[in-house]
Amino acid sequence: xxxxxxxxxxxxxxxxxxxxxxxxxxxxxxxxxxxxxxxxxxxxxxxxxxxxxxxxxxxxxxxxxxxxxxxxxxxxxxxxxxxxxxxxxxxxxxxxxxxxxxxxxxxxxx
Length: 110
Description:
By secondary structure, this protein is α/β, with parallel strands linked by helices. The chain has helices at about 10-15, 20, 30-35, 50-55, 70-85, 95-100; strands at about 5, 25-30, 45, 65, 90. A 5-stranded parallel sheet has the order 1-5-4-2-3. Helix 3 links the parallel strand 2 and strand 3. The termini are far apart.
């Protein structure tokens, strides 16, 4: 199983392209308190610890980008989702921290 990553710049470009963004699900696997501090608009929060029990709620026909703080938990989330049969999944390299620093300075750093 190969886990693919997407760069913050590539994700930023996809988000700006409305046609492609409609097929995209941004899955933030951080804890609710982290999500409350900052998140990419339109993303949904499903903490990594609950992912195994709740992955069946996720659409298998959409591309999913997993997001965490620095990119470690989101890589683990990719593996979980791939084992659950979701193949169109990538992890945000560097997490929301790098995304904020390089793509969207309006988001809060923590």
